[in-house]
Design a protein that fits this description.
Low-confidence stretches: 1-23, 25-47
Distance between the termini: 55 Å
Number of helices: 15
Order of helices and strands: HHHEEEHEEEHEHEEHEHEHHEEHEEHHHH
Mean pLDDT: 87
Radius of gyration: 25 Å
Bound molecules: zinc ion
Shape: globular
Length: 435
C-alpha cells in the first residue's frame, strides 16, 4: 500500500489541476478486490485493506480541499460523493454502486457501530491524523430507500485554532470584541443563523478569557470541540438533561465563566440572568438576525426589560460570507445606481474596487475560496440600557447604537464588496437574509 500512499501524496500536490478525478489505480484496485469472493482469509484481508485505502483517499482529499463534511449518498446507479466547502455542498465524484457497502462497513468499524444494523440511524465518531492535523470525525448513517446514506463531519481537534485573531474579522472588530470581554461579569450573546460560525466565536472567546485561576463550565448541544482545561457538558433531552437543568447544576459547582450553547426558552434565560446577577460571566447564543434583534428575542422570551438591561454587557452578530477566489476574480464595474437600489444608505467613496467571480482550478471553478467573517458588535452602555428598559422598538435601538459607532452587518458587507473582497451575489444574499 506504500505505492498507493505515495500516489495520494503526489495527487494531493496535483489537486489543483484536476480536483474531480481520482487515480484510476485506486478505483481499479478497489473494484478488483470488491469483485473478489471472500473464499480465504487472505483475500478478505486484502479486500479490507483496499477499502481502507479507498476511504482514506476520500477523507484525505476532503482535508486537502478544506471540506467540513463528506457525504456518500446512495442512488440507483451510482454513489454520489459530495464535500461541503465554505458552507456549500459540491459534487466531487460519482462512484460505482458496488463500492458503497464496503465504504459504509469500513466507516462503521472505525466508528464502532453495528455493521449488521441497516434499518435504524446510527451515530458515532473516530479520530484521524492528517499531517500535523488531528481530526475528530463525527459519523452519521441514515438508512435510505436504496441504501445507507453516510455523512462524516470533520472537526479539527487542535484547540490552537480558536483565537479571536483567527476568526477572520477586521482588526478593529476584534479590538472592539476584546474591549467587551474586559468586563468579566454579565451576559454576552452571539446572534446569527446556523452555520454563521457562532460556536467557533464562543470557543475563541472562552479561550481568550479563561485562565488557570478561573473555572469555566460549558453546556452544549452537543459538545463540538474538546477544550483543554474546560469542563464541558452535553445536553441530553432524552434523559431530561436540558440547558436549564444543566445550568442549574453548574451553578452549584462555583464557576466563574459559564457557556450556555443556546438561550431558547424562558427557563434557561432566567437562570442565565440570575447567574449574571450573582457575578458570573455568561456566554450564549440567541437565534436572531442581528444584535438589536437578539435583544428583542430575549425580551420576547418573557424576561423583564430591567433585568435584560441590567445584565446584558454586549451582543455580537455575525455571518460568514464567501470570499472571491484571489486567483481568478476579475475587475468589475462599479454601478452606484444599482447599488443604491439595494443599499440606499451607501455613499460613494470614490475608491471602489469591484471584482467578480470567474472560476479556476484553485476554486473548483466556483469563483469563491474561503469565507469572510462579518461581525456587528453592540456594547451595552447606559444609553442603550435606558432604551432597553423602555422597551423601545428595534429602529430606535439601532439608531442609538449606530450613533455610538456600531457598524451594521450591512455596512461591513458593503465595505468588503467595494474593496473587491466579496462579490455582488454574496452581498445580495446577505441583504435578502437581513430584510
Ligand atoms: Zn479561482
Amino acid at each position: 500500500m506504500a505505492i498507493l500512499r505515495s500516489l495520494f501524496r503526489k495527487r494531493s500536490k496535483l489537486a489543483d489541476t484536476n480536483a474531480f478525478e481520482i487515480p484510476a489505480e485506486v478505483t481499479e484496485m478497489t473494484e478488483k478486490k470488491d469483485e473478489a469472493t471472500d473464499t480465504t482469509t487472505a483475500t478478505a484481508a486484502k479486500k479490507n485493506n483496499s477499502t481502507e485505502d479507498f476511504l482514506d483517499y476520500w477523507i484525505q482529499k476532503a482535508v486537502e480541499m478544506r471540506a467540513s463534511d463528506v457525504h456518500f449518498e446512495r442512488y440507483r446507479t451510482y454513489v454520489k460523493v459530495r464535500y461541503r466547502i465554505d458552507g456549500r455542498l459540491q459534487t466531487i465524484k460519482k462512484l460505482p454502486v458496488h463500492l458503497h457497502s464496503g465504504l459504509v462497513t469500513r466507516v462503521k468499524i472505525l466508528a464502532k457501530l453495528k455493521i449488521d444494523e441497516k434499518r435504524v440511524p446510527q451515530d458515532g465518531r473516530f479520530s484521524l491524523v492528517h499531517g500535523d492535523k488531528k481530526f475528530d470525525v463525527r459519523v452519521s448513517i441514515l438508512p435510505g430507500y436504496l441504501g445507507e446514506c453516510l455523512v462524516m463531519r470533520l472537526l479539527q481537534s487542535n484547540s490552537d485554532l480558536f483565537s479571536l485573531q483567527n476568526l477572520g474579522a477586521r482588526d478593529k472588530d476584534v479590538q472592539k470584541l476584546e474591549h467587551l470581554l474586559s468586563i468579566q461579569n454579565g451576559i454576552i450573546v452571539v446572534a446569527g443563523p446556523t452555520g454563521s460560525g457562532k460556536s467557533t466565536t464562543l470557543y475563541s472567546i472562552v479561550k481568550k478569557i479563561s485562565s488557570p485561576e478561573c473555572k469555566v463550565i460549558t453546556v452544549e448541544d452537543p459538545v463540538e470541540y474538546q477544550l483543554e482545561g474546560i469542563n464541558q457538558v452535553s445536553v441530553n433531552e432524552a434523559i431530561g438533561m436540558t440547558f436549564a437543568t444543566a445550568l442549574r447544576s453548574m451553578l452549584r459547582q462555583a464557576p466563574n465563566i459559564i457557556l450556555v450553547g443556546e438561550i431558547r426558552d424562558k427557563e434557561t434565560a432566567e437562570i442565565a440572568i440570575r447567574a449574571a446577577l450573582t457575578g458570573h460571566l455568561v456566554l450564549s447564543t440567541v437565534h436572531a438576525k442581528d444584535t438589536v434583534n437578539a435583544i428583542t428575542r430575549l425580551l420576547d422570551l418573557g424576561i423583564p426589560a430591567y433585568l435584560v438591561a441590567a445584565t446584558l454587557r454586549g451582543v455580537l452578530s455575525q455571518r460568514l460570507i464567501r470570499k472571491l477566489c484571489p486567483n481568478c476574480a476579475r475587475e468589475g464595474k462599479f454601478d452606484l445606481a444599482s447599488l443604491k437600489e439595494i443599499a440606499p444608505e451607501y455613499k460613494a467613496m470614490g475608491n471602489e474596487h469591484i471584482r467578480e467571480p470567474v472560476g479556476c482550478d484553485q476554486c473548483l471553478n466556483t469563483g469563491y475560496k474561503g469565507r469572510q467573517a462579518v461581525m456587528e458588535i453592540l456594547p451595552v452602555n447606559e444609553k442603550i440600557q435606558r432604551i432597553i428598559n423602555q422597551r423601545c422598538d428595534e429602529d430606535k435601538l439601532r439608531q442609538q447604537a449606530q450613533s455610538e459607532g456600531m457598524e451594521t452587518l450591512r455596512q461591513i458587507a458593503l465595505e468588503h464588496y467595494t474593496h473587491g473582497e466579496i462579490g455582488y451575489e454574496a452581498l445580495l444574499t446577505l441583504f435578502a437574509e437581513m430584510s
